[in-house]
Write a structure and sequence with these properties.
alpha+beta; Thrombin, subunit H; nine-stranded antiparallel β-sheet; six-stranded antiparallel β-barrel; 7 helices; 25 strands
Length: about 400
């Protein structure tokens, strides 16, 4: 049995990196978030509950400040089943990149807006990394961690070794109760400055950082979320996102120590993605589904005017859907996360101590651009959402129209 002394936990609070795509640059205002690359839709609210056990309490205590910003998804809600991650290999001069034998890849979030089509950020699936969408497929995964215990999460989050071989006692995807489903998918549209395919709606070019991914292997009855038709610039928001959970230093350690080595190869993003452990397709970087939490006292996360929010995230959060609740209390997609505040100061993840209510954390692509993308594929999405079944009185079965 693995024992961790409380004194050992304090300096190594969990750092989560979710699906924000590859960070391109940091300027005075924002940093692009890195790629890190059922029956019909119903009207039930997404308020599933999970009864916490002692392990969950211990896990929250160990997570510390991070636990004020997000939690593990346990609700089996429509939103939890309609969101996932996409993994995209990072290419150098057109060739796949490796570090220590592990492929270098980025991850992002996706939100299904029909059973087979999902929205993400275009910078997650750029032409540099997905040069031929018909040949260069991407892998989308959905997750279920409803039955994963807090104690097992504690064990899987503690790693041993040195870069690039940080090994957990048990990789996240081997935890009892952990389930994931993978799909081989293709990019059918990518727009904005990363765009080169199917980005015209009503004769107008879609200029936003949005992309559409097709996952043909997903069930025709799989969960999906509608696209919002309005966007209150100060309204409440929520987000489901995906990242590994690892114990790593959050303050600069002394030079020459193992903690400093982990700071250099995880906590700090760095200019070379191959030198950050988050970007390696390694058993230690198995993703977990996470969702935003309200502030203390039930104060909701909000839009801060336009598309900035006080949501928490990491490089790898890009593409994850920023969501709002409609009049029926159901979640719907506003737009994919696309960039982060320069307040992150070169870190892989936002600093949980400096993100407070009303402080900019995550910026998402305008709902206007998502609606334009939906309009460009209106017919395709309609038939995917509502396939018509014709009844033939002379036949015992149903014939698809």
């Amino acid at each position: 049995m693995l024992h961790v002394a409380p004194s050992a936990l304090r300096p190594r609070l969990v750092v989560l990196a979710s699906s924000l795509l590859f960070v391109a640059c940091v300027d005075a205002e924002e940093a692009e978030l890195d790629t890190d690359a059922d029956a019909e839709f119903d009207t039930d609210t997404d308020d599933g509950e999970h009864e916490a056990d002692e392990g969950d309490d211990a896990f929250r205590a160990a997570v510390g400040a991070y636990g004020t910003h997000f939690e593990l998804v346990r609700d089996d809600s429509q939103a939890s089943r309609a969101t996932g991650s996409v993994a995209v290999p990072l290419r150098v001069n057109g060739q796949l990149d490796y570090e220590g034998g592990w492929i270098v890849r980025g991850t992002c979030g996706v939100t299904f807006i029909s059973p087979h089509y999902a929205v993400t950020s275009a910078h997650c699936v750029t032409g540099a990394n997905v040069p031929n969408p018909q040949v260069d497929s991407v892998v989308v995964k959905t997750y279920d961690t409803s039955d994963v215990s807090g104690w097992s999460l504690l064990a899987s989050s503690i790693v041993e070794g040195t870069f690039p071989e940080y090994w957990p006692q048990t990789p996240a995807y081997q935890l009892p109760g952990y389930s994931e489903q993978g799909y081989v998918c293709t990019v059918v549209s990518r727009c904005g400055e990363f765009g080169d395919a199917s980005c015209t709606a009503g004769g107008n070019t879609i200029t936003g950082d949005v992309a559409l991914v097709y996952c043909g292997g997903r069930s025709s009855s799989a969960a999906w979320l509608p696209v919002a038709t309005s966007d209150d610039p100060t309204g409440p928001v929520e987000m489901y996102w995906f990242h590994e959970l690892l114990y790593m230093p959050t303050t600069l350690p002394q030079a020459g120590t193992s903690e400093r080595e982990r700071w250099d190869h995880y906590t700090i993003l760095g200019n070379d993605r191959s030198q950050n452990f988050h970007y390696l397709e390694h058993p230690g970087t198995g993703l977990l589904p996470l969702k935003s939490k309200s502030w203390a006292g039930g104060v909701q996360r909000r839009r801060l005017g336009s598309t900035w929010t006080d949501l928490y995230g990491c490089h790898g959060t890009s593409g994850s859907g920023v969501l709002q609740r409609n009049g029926l209390g159901n979640l719907e997609l506003l737009g994919p996360a696309k960039s982060a505040s320069a307040r992150w100061n070169g870190r892989l993840c936002d600093d949980p101590a400096t993100l407070t209510p009303g402080v900019s954390g995550i910026n998402y692509e305008s709902n206007t651009h998502v609606l334009a993308l939906q309009a460009a594929f209106a017919g395709t999405l309609f038939w995917d959402r509502f396939p018509i079944i014709w009844w033939n009185p002379g036949n015992a079965g149903l014939d698809p129209g």
